[in-house]
Amino acid sequence: MKALLEKLQINDVNPGTCTGPDGWIDSGGDVLVSHNATTGEPLAKVIQTTPASYISVVDVAAEAFKTWRSVPAPKRGEVVRDLGNALRAYKEPLGELVTLEMGKIKVEGMGEVQEMIDICDFAVGLSRQLYGLAMHSERPGHRMYEQWHPLGAIGIITSFNFPVAVWSWNAAIAAVAGDTMVWKPSELTPLTAIATQHIANEVAADHGLHGIFNLVIGGGELGQLMSSDHRLPMVSFTGSIRTGRKVAESVARRLGRTILELGGNNAIIVTEDANLDMAVRAILFGAVGTAGQRCTTTRRIIAHQSIVDELTARLVKAYKQVAIGDPLDAGTLMGPLINKRAVDNMAAAIETAQANDGTVVYGGGLLPGLGAHFVEPTIIRMPQQIPLVCEETFAPILYIMSYETVEEAIEIHNGVPQGLSSAIFTTNLLTAEEFLSVKGSDCGIANVNIGTSGAEIGGAFGGEKETGGGRESGSDAWKAYMRRQTNTINWSTQMPLAQGIQFGD
Ligand code: UN1
Q1: Spatial separation of the C-alpha atoms in residues 471 and 478, rounded to whole Å
Q2: DSSP codes joined into one string, 230-280
Q3: Ligand 1: which residues within 6 Å by Cβ?
């Protein structure tokens, strides 16, 4: 472990505040201890960012923006290309640190770094494609078009469950867009953030850059400072609905912009004609992968009444094969939850489900023999979608419900406040299309014959309703990181007004 931490430049005590190469600041703030999610043992200490040092970091980011915005976008893309290459070189140790600190299994830790690499590649291409539209003016001798300018220094607040990938979705796009950024990672995963900052610093140093990628570490007060800071025209927040609402309110009060990627309560509808082999595999990965701690985790199954028993039996059989243990071991499929609070929340949800006619058909228990954060992945048959099922419990609990008609299935599906990811398993083209239609899934992501989690970076990622409406990552999500300007140029010698208005002579 020491060797791994050394490779990533993590010391016993690390400053948590940084403005770039040689820009680590010992703020004199309170010390935070990061723990190994699997054993609960301390990994290293972090000196948190004080309000005063936060202010100086944003000063640096705002100042750096004045230069960065004028660097041609394809040149900014070259920096992001080097960031992607540096991440390729560090993929193994960084992925392992994600596993150590967050507890997801090693292949998922690596997968997370792969997402970082992929978004860098995407952003490099994008750096030559930040297109605006040209439109025909209604006035003779006039040309109209729109262009996209960098926005400023932006805030990025990320959650523990994807401790580095979510930063990269924002950072790679923001960097080619010409923004500088201030990142506040979760206090539960500060070391992966510090390791990532070191990697970004190496790249920045090669390009003689400072103040583009900045880091602050601390709790909710720091998030609050960012939300109310008018020097950050946009704040991208990933996390709980409760905190997201606070961020949204503070940013809205100053009429700033947000990208919110909040909770999900993702369901899969399984129809009577579905390929159950495929459905079982997808549900297993969706519900048990990352120990149920993805915002895209499959939390609800809505299965046709004619196949619900068979599907449940097959899932129970599959769950029995899930090896639970040290996430660094190659054979492990499920590691620990992030902390004791997550374990307690899971236990409380199972109790509530049982008190409301839920039947635990698999799991339901804790696994203290493996460690304080280990739980059994759990399947619960629910006769109805009770209020508990409408909440997101960040744990590997899968609720199975049944339906008779497709309309009923969609109604149950959409009957929760969140709207992130969704899927249907069916071989019926008409049902698949209905699910994707305006009357179908109300989520930001809707899939056919693949699960709810594990989205590719090329699409816009995010969801509707209480998920917050934001979109990050691929497609045209870059527009949220830039400001649009509509330009009209009069190349004639006349002064016509729009709408044919005659004003004066
Ligand atoms: C998250 O859990 O916050 O689609 C993001 C997925 C991953 C990202 C999840 N690509 O499951």
Answers
A1: 9
A2: TT-SEEEEES-HHHHHHHHHHHHHTT-EEEEE----EEEEE-TTS-HHHHH
A3: 115, 161-162, 166, 238, 294-296, 453-455
Q: Convert the pLDDT of each residue in 421-435 to its tens digit.
A: 999 999 999 999 999
Residues 35 and 112: their CA atoms lie apart, in Å, by 20
pLDDT tens, residue by residue, 291-336? 999 999 999 999 999 999 999 999 999 999 999 999 999 999 999 9
295 assigned to active site: yes
Q: What SS3 state is found at 460? A: strand
Ligand 1 atom closest to the Cα of residue 461 is 4
CA of 447 to the centre of ligand 1 (A): 14
Q: What is the pTM of this model?
A: 0.98
Per-residue pLDDT, 401: 98
Instruction: Give the model's pLDDT for residue 403.
Output: 98
Q: What percent of the chain has pLDDT over 90?
A: 99
How does strand 134-136 pair with strand 142-150?
Answer: antiparallel
Other Cβ atoms less than 10 A from the Cβ of 451: the count is 25
Residues 115, 158 contacting (CB under 8 angstroms): no
Q: Are 446 and 434 in contact (CB under 8 A)?
A: no
Residue 200: which region, alpha, beta or left (left: phi > 0; alpha: psi -120 to 50)?
alpha
Contact 94, 195 (CB under 8 A): yes
CB atoms within 10 A of CB 337: 26
The sign of the CA dihedral 438, 409, 281, 397 is: positive
**Whole-number Cα distances in Å, 264 to 122, 170, 370, 466:** 25, 19, 28, 8
For residue 247, pLDDT over 90 is answered with: yes
DSSP H/E element including 447? strand 445-448
Q: Which two tokens stand for residue 326?
A: 């040290």
Told to judge if 466 belongs to the known catalytic residues of this protein, a careful annotator would answer: no
Model confidence at 505: pLDDT above 80: no
Three-state SS at 482 = strand
Which ligand 1 atom minimizes the distance to the CA of 297? Answer: 11
